Amino acid sequence: MQLPRIEHQILIIRGQKVMLDSDLAELYGVETKRFNEAIKRNVARFPEDFMFQLSSDEAESLRSQFATLDERTSTKTGRGQHRKYLPYVFTEHGSIMAAMVLNSPRALQVSVYVIRAFVRLREASLAHQDLAKRLAELEEKTEAIDARQDNFTQSTKTQLRHILDALNDLMTPAASPKQPIGFVPLEDKSIK
Hints:
Layout: H1 3-9, E1 10-13, E2 16-20, H2 21-28, H3 32-41, E3 51-53, H4 56-65, H5 70-73, E4 88-90, H6 92-102, H7 105-171
Antiparallel strand pairs: 1-2, 2-4, 3-4
C-alpha cells in the first residue's frame, strides 16, 4: 500500500479531512455496499465527528470537481454503476473505527497506512499555515515600509521645494526703488 495514493483520497469537506466510504471500502478490501452495511450495524460507534453523510449538493459538487469520482459519488437512482444513496465520509477517527468494525486482518493492517496519510497531511497543513503566517507578516512589514517611504518622499519633496524657493529668492535680487533723477522737494523725501 502506498501512502501518496491514500493521501490523494483524503478530501476536505465541511472543514474536515475525510475519506469517502467507497475509498475506505476499496482499501479495506470489501465492497462499498458491505462496508456501509457493517457501519450501519454499528452506527453507535460513529458519532458525527467520526462520520457523516454528504448532502446531495456536496456529492454533486464533489462529482463535478473530480471527474474520476463519477462512479463513486454519483447519486443517480437505478441499477448499474451509479450509487443509489448519498456517500458517507469518514474522518481520521472514523476510518480507525471502521477498521475495527470490519475486524479483518487487511482492514487493521491498512488502517495504519490510512492514519499515517492523515498525519502527513496534518503536518503538511501545519507547515503551510506557518508559511502563510510568515508571508502575512512580511506583507505587513512591506506595507509599513512602503508607508514610511511615502511619508519620507512627501516630506523630502516639501523640503526640497522650500530650499529651491529660498535659492530662487537669493538668486534674484530684490528690486530696489529707483531714485528719481533731479531735485526732490523735502515733503517728498519719503520716496527713496
